[in-house]
Amino acid sequence: xxxxxxxxxxxxxxxxxxxxxxxxxxxxxxxxxxxxxxxxxxxxxxxxxxxxxxxxxxxxxxxxxxxxxxxxxxxxxxxxxxxxxxxxxxxxxxxxxxxxxxxxxxxxxxxxxxxxxxxxxxxxxxxxxxxxxxxxxxxxxxxxxxxxxxxxxxxxxxxxxxxxxxxxxxxxxxxxxxxxxxxxxxxxxxxxxxxxxxxxxxxxxxxxxxxxxxxxxxxxxxxxxxx
Length: 227
Fold this sequence. Notes:
Order of helices and strands: HEHEHEHEHEHEHEHEH
CATH topology: TIM Barrel
CATH class: Alpha Beta
Radius of gyration: 17 Å
Number of strands: 8
Number of helices: 9
Oligomer: single chain
Helix content: 40-55%
Distance between the termini: 16 Å
Shape: globular
CATH architecture: Alpha-Beta Barrel
Strand content: 15-25%
Number of domains: 1
């Protein structure tokens, strides 16, 4: 199918899932554009997709030069950010959806303050238990709380990845655990509640929306399998 048909199918599935599961949250579709050429991203943008997710700094450098004529686009970093890439990251992206340590969050905040460029971020929580995954463990720690009080990095939600096993029961449990953890965090932070739950990719976004996801990162379902 064409990208237009793929997009229509995904958006229809999102709305159907919300109806069937009695969910009312808005769901943002983030196009995961790793290895995809700019002309396909431009096509998606013309179809109304304004959130673009990249997980490689160097790849983004060449693509994002062309985004100047695309107003209202949101450039989201969705991969693991190395500290030595923060300067390049700051010049390229509007958000970081994968903050996996207070050390990283603090460095981004310091740079954002110097540049007078506040950023939005999501904290990555490893609810799957996969040892090779990045992210905080789903326990309320001082470091997580400190991330929420940085002056130029506005944390507005949490992110997780489904387990490598792709077992449906394990996947749902990981997503439920993130939703419950968000509730726990919000009990601690007072008036400024976290609202975003970035859960779900091409293979599991339906389960994610059933469990409260407000943001899904979709690549394969949009573009087809990578060669």
